[in-house]
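step: validate -> pass
step: tokenize input -> pass
step: predict -> running
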Amino acid sequence: MYGFEAASEFYFSKPARQLILEEAALLAGLPKSAVVYSPINHPDRAQKRRNLVINAMLEDGKITAQQAADARSAPISLRLAHDPNSLAPHFVEEIRRYLEGKYGADQVHEGGLKVYTTLDVDLQRAANQSLLDGLAAYERRHGWKAHLENVVAEGAVLENIPIPTGTTSPRLADIFMAW
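step: predict -> pass
step: emit ->
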């Protein structure tokens, strides 16, 4: 996945064809300088650039004045995608920011740097697992308070529900036998 589609997945966690006007305009403004207009690091600049793109679309007759006004007034709402396999995403992001500040984005992303950090992979895995175990224990003690969908009540057939990639699922018969 490359370009606009990859940016759509990264910034909004959805395919480009599902973007709304203000989201598409934000991405259209990034090629001028993704670092300068980054909605993560510089949301104010990103919003100004997005609004410039919206104004250009209005001038070209691609959108109505009302659509332009609505899109310009919308806040930037990102839904950043994170690599589910990433061991320490916040740590890695901080390292990336530091390196970009010190060496520049081009050097960091295209310069073939070899980076050594203080991250101990084994300790991080243990910490992640400990956190998950602690959360599970807390939920067992206090109960889960979030609203969960009841797909069966909505008419779904359990056998037809796709299982997320990389997970294993026990057979339904095994689940019901456990009860």
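step: describe -> The chain has two domains: 3-73, 89-146.
step: cleanup -> pass
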